[in-house]
Amino acid sequence: MSGETRQTIGDLARRTGLSVRTIRYYADSGIVPPTDRSPAGYRRFGPDAVARLELVRTLRDLGVDLAAIRRVVNHEVPLREVAATHAEAVAVQIRVLRLRQAVLTLAARRGAGPAEMEELHRLARLTAQERRQLVEDFLGTLFADLGDRPACSGVLVSMTPELPEDPTTAQIEAWLELAELCRDPTFRASMRRLTRQHAADHDVPGLPRPDAVAVVRDVVAPALAAGLDPFGPEADGVVAAATDRYARLHRRADDAALRRWLWDRLTVANDPRRDRYLDLLSVVNGWSTGVPVTPAVDWFLQALRARLPEPTG
What we know:
- By secondary structure, the chain is mainly α.
- It folds into two domains: 7-76, Multidrug-efflux Transporter Regulator, Chain: A, Domain 2 (Orthogonal Bundle); 126-307, no CATH class.
- Helix content is 67%, strand content 2%.
- The protein has helices at residues 9-16, 20-28, 49-61, 66-73, 79-110, 114-124, 128-143, 150-158, 169-183, 185-202, 212-226, 236-249, 256-269, 272-285, 294-307, and strands spanning 7-8, 36-37, 43-45.
- A three-stranded antiparallel β-sheet has the order 1-3-2.
- 24% of the residues are buried.
């Protein structure tokens, strides 16, 4: 064996950058065994020792345990098999870390106390079946007693969050907040009233018609974009256009009674948590975020209230 092929631990340390102590440990572990010893009793290594050590260092940096590394370098198991196994283990670790990051980020943002942090942690650890049950319970409350109306079926699908199997941190954060909304009794009651309004607006023969919120959103959007004052005279035409369209959809006269009825419906619907739910739903499901309706409803309610006659009696 030539001098080039006989390398001491010191030689390997200089060529690889690993410490003498580390190389000695790998040699004692059978991962990089010496080929022979010098007359003075020092271990010497063959020409493949540097390549072995480089592979060992790479696998250790990737988190592979020494037992698996020994099996790879001794050709007891293919490298691809070990790589695949550890890649899956790393994927699991990443999912756990994302979950922890989401809980900690949300708790820090809110200044949560111990009880709230524990609840966030509990919600984050729900199984897929438990998440489905929570959502089904929420949506079941909203749509109870409404039957199988086609309009309701479409809304039910569009309101269902489905956290992917490998969610991002942002999706986990959105799920946590959305789950809290689903469990909030006041939000449930508000959305239940809104769902019934939506069903009533669509429960007519023929083609589906937009509900009150959709009518106002479409008519008021240009006024919002233009910065119109809801109390100024320029808002008269916007209010008239919205009430006229809604009256025609319901085959009613555009009178004070209809305007008060529209006021009542929009007041019930004007819950900013509705927009928040839809934004969170879009993040969880990977959809594009829609245009919030609360600003348009806020603007219209101010404009309409300023133009309603004072009640008599």
